[in-house]
Amino acid sequence: MSNGYMRKILRVDLSVGTLNIEPTSEDIAKKYLGGKGYAVYLLYQYLKEYESKGISPADINPLGSENVLIFANGPGTGVPGFPSSGRYHVMALKSPLTGSIGSANSGGEWGPFLKFSGFDAVIVEGVSKKPVYIAIVNGEAELRNASDLWGKNVFDTCRILKKKVGGENTSVACEGPAGENSAHMACIVNDEHRAAGRTGLGAVMGSKKLKAIVVSGSGKVPLAKPDKFKEISKRCLDAMRKNAVTGEGLPTYGTSILINIINTAGGLPYKNWQTGVNPNAEKISGETLAETYLTNRRACWGCTIGCGRVTSVKSGSFQVLSSEGPEYESVGALGSSTGVKELDAVVKANHYCDELGLDSITMGSTIAAAMELNERGYIPKEDLQGLDLKFGNAAALVECIWRTAYKAGFGKYLALGSKKLCEIYGHPELSMSVKGLEMPAYDPRAIKGIGLNYATANRGGCHVTGYTVVPEILGIPEKIDPLKPEGKAKWVKIFQDFTCVVNSTVNCLFTTFALSAKDYAELLSAVTGWNLTENDILRIGERIYNLERVILNKYGFDGKDDTLPRRLLKEAMPEGPAKGHIVELEKMKDEYYRLRGWINGVPTLEKLKELEIEI
């Protein structure tokens, strides 16, 4: 087995209580790296096995025993000097929110510490009869009773288990009350405030009665060419320190530095995307956060950026004495999209999302959709049970979050996500989602490339699948006009393929502000001993993206689902720099399909053969 890997995978069957160790496959690693790529490959093997037994993909219950959850790191994870290498990727065969493949990514310490504990991945099958947690310590793993932890929030769970397991390099990933209660946007939280946030994987974890996975260990990641790696690492880290975004903007103001930038471009969703201009953006910006509630910054393991915000609201109705965040997407969803301009309320709402285990993007977007439904008179008052759901109501924002986690009152509807919520009340067009996943805080009427990415992203309304905001708004590696659809298909494909690589190494996507595919090829070659080129890297990413799309197709998703909410396609932006603009999606999508080698959202057999994908 090549270097960069711990060479072991843990497979846990909760239904029968067995834990087995199997080798990491070098053949799979060479084609899919690790992290997301390796997990996508494994999930596809599960689907083929189920189909051979007569189980249709459509019949797989996201909250049932057939679903599989995979936690995986990659060859870059936990390698000192590999830029921002403190992440892990987690995937499920099916998401309860979208009905398609589940996929999420998180930073902190858990990913590297899983590696130091001796494993490249953990595969979780079946459903336990009682609450359990998995303890993995220096190559040994066991299932332990978690009945005393069931019902506890994320913070308590992390602190109790970290102390109980002890040892060197110990970290806890868990689900909170939202996961236990099967809220469809429940997430997995590690290190108290770092979340694998999207597609409802906390609900999958909760349905399996798996409260947490604790990792602890003192292992070291083997390198093929340590001296060569040191040389390349120094060059890459210097580039990140000198970069205006990774060396200055993110360390100083965190990701929320984008609030004013995106608002100025006319693309900050306001009041459930009715416009892209928020008149109160400055009040919830990263600059204002730094002036008011910021007390420190926190970096993930092995990261020189340190974009994490440590915050404190000392007094008032939304007092939070110690917390982390909110980041840009949380501010965009919980603040701008709901029309809430009180930053302390957004801090409190984000804190509750971490404490209870909720995806702040889907949570905020679902509340915003409910506010518009209510203001248009579509929700009966008796359903709200006293909630004053109107745009800008900070108290209602915070109230909705705990109601969602416990499915209390109107929370039982919010817990389904905006798509199902809006369908229940007869207006699905008010859900700002793609393939059932709520879109992050960039209105594509003002940033056309990100609209094409939203539409074609495999997991749904996702910006990090192909973050074209970088060239369209920030001008990296070159500035392109955000209001023109021409040429965007090429950029979207490149970003999507490269992102698959970064999520499979597994590293932080912020490194791509400063580093290229060529840099990643050189870093990985020194770590693994393989001779990788820039073209090899992008080909691996393309392979991962296409195999993931094959899984989507098996669930019935195709070109009809590669679309955007009606509002973005038919309702022109009412104001700002993008006034009068809609998203010319079909024009961009046709070019994108040609570049991908797809027909109506389905990869051709020729393309799959070219990428050496066996189906």
In percent, how helical is the residue content? 40-55%
Terminal CA distance: 25 Å
Report low-confidence residues grouped into runs of 5 or more: none
> What value does the Rg take, in angstroms?
22 Å
Strand order of the largest sheet: 2-1-6-3-4-5
In short:
By secondary structure, the chain is α+β, with helices and mostly antiparallel strands. Helices cover 41% and strands 14% of the residues. It is globular and about 60 Å long.
Characterization of the model:
The protein is an alpha+beta fold and 615 residues long. It folds into 3 domains: 8-216, Aldehyde ferredoxin oxidoreductase, N-terminal domain (Aldehyde Ferredoxin Oxidoreductase,  A, domain 1, 4-Layer Sandwich), CATH 3.60.9; 256-437, Aldehyde Ferredoxin Oxidoreductase Protein, subunit A, domain 2 (Orthogonal Bundle); 441-610, Aldehyde Ferredoxin Oxidoreductase Protein, subunit A, domain 3 (Orthogonal Bundle), CATH 1.10.599.10. It has 25 helices and 19 strands. It has a 6-stranded mixed β-sheet. Strands 8-7-12-9-10-11 form a 6-stranded mixed β-sheet. Strand 14 (308-313) and strand 15 form a beta hairpin. Helix 20 packs across helix 22. The radius of gyration is 22 Å and the shape is globular. The mean pLDDT is 97.
Topology:
Blueprint: E1 8-13, E2 18-23, H1 26-32, H2 35-52, E3 69-72, E4 88-92, E5 102-106, H3 110-116, E6 121-125, E7 132-137, E8 140-145, H4 154-165, E9 170-174, H5 177-180, E10 188-190, E11 194-196, H6 201-207, E12 210-216, H7 226-242, H8 245-253, H9 258-264, H10 286-292, E13 294-298, E14 308-313, E15 320-324, H11 328-336, H12 343-356, H13 360-375, H14 381-384, H15 394-406, H16 411-414, H17 418-424, E16 433-434, E17 437-438, H18 448-456, H19 469-474, H20 488-505, H21 517-528, H22 534-554, H23 566-570, H24 585-596, E18 598-599, E19 602-603, H25 605-610
Parallel strand pairs: 1-6, 7-12
Antiparallel strand pairs: 1-2, 3-4, 3-6, 4-5, 7-8, 9-10, 9-12, 10-11, 13-14, 14-15, 16-17, 18-19
